[in-house]
Amino acid sequence: MSNQPSLLAAATVVEARKITASRVVHAATILLIAGVALLASTLHLAAGAGNEQILAQLGPYAETDGWERLLGITAQIVAIGCLLGFGTVVSWSVGREFTDGTISGLFALPVPRPFIAAAKLMVFAVWTVLVAVLLVASVVVLGVITGAGSIGWQTAGGLARLFVLVILTGLLSYPAAWAATLGRNLLPGIATAIGIGVLAQVAVVAGTGAWLPVAAPALWASMPQAVSLTQLALVAVIPVVFGALTLSTWARLQLDR
Fold first, then answer.
1. Which pLDDT does position 2 carry in this prediction?
2. d(CA 183, CA 84)
3. Can you tell me whether residue 252 is helix, strand or coil?
4. Distance of CA 239 to the CA centre of its chain
5. 113-117: Cβ within 8 A, 24+ apart
6. What is the rounded distance in angstroms from the CA atom of residue 127 to the CA atom of residue 177?
7. What residues form the membrane-spanning segments (predicted)?
């Protein structure tokens, strides 16, 4: 029992090396940072130029300008695009062991399989925070370049909420890790991430998004007054429950399954 922390640390180092060497993660990182920031800025500029087709898709943000519009557009993109991107990466992290046939080798290691799964989720969470930092920084740079205005306290608050939104979106993709484990492939995980995104959008349209953990973060980032701290705190249920389910499933894995 005394060597368990060292085993977890060793597994974390290995998983960190895997994720930093992965072309899948490299591509996802670029798309999540540069892709989201550039798309949001492009839509922001098009709306500012009076493009009626773009304005019709922006909802309440069609009547805003400056940082408020840019951050609102970015939050909408993050709610869907980042969820799919994060879901793909966490599904790859878990599912690749099955698709590459390396899962059998993990049974011969002295590191317990739940430790390996925990390491995967922890490394993924750290990567999510890094993406959040770089994405917000990219939005700030592009916002300044496109003339969104000066950064006051209200804008700083919006940027802080965007940062939290990106991290929470990453944590909301944990069900994809469990699905990838159950399906022994990354595709069930990606499908789960898509399903979560669809569910969140339906809940927002139906007006019940504040009480649905998968929808509350995006709603809070755009309209903080519409979501209470209690409702936002419910988001923690998703990573805790599905993280535990993933670890439990990895503990019960069998080679003949």
1. 54
2. 18
3. coil
4. 11
5. 113/250, 113/251, 113/253, 114/247, 114/248, 114/250, 114/251, 115/4, 115/7, 115/8, 115/11, 116/11, 116/15, 116/250, 117/177, 117/181, 117/246, 117/247, 117/250
6. 15
7. 27-50, 70-94, 115-145, 151-174, 186-212, 232-253
Integer Cα distance of 151 and 141 in angstroms? 11
pLDDT tens track for 192-201: 999 998 888 8
pTM over 0.85: yes
List, as one string, the DSSP characters of 10-32. HHHHHHHHHHHH-HHHHHHHHII
In angstroms, rounded to a whole number, what is the distance separating the alpha carbons of residues 210 and 203?
8
Cβ pair 182, 123 in contact under 8 A: no
C-alpha count within 13 angstroms, C-beta hemisphere, residue 159:
21
- DSSP of 125-190: HHHHHHHHHHHHHHHHHHHHHTT-----HHHHHHHHHHHHHHHHHHHTTHHHHHHHHHHTSHHHHH
As a whole number of angstroms, the distance between CA 210 and CA 215 comes to: 7
Residue type, 165: L
CA distances from 1 to 59, 112, 117, 181, 250 (A): 56, 11, 18, 26, 19
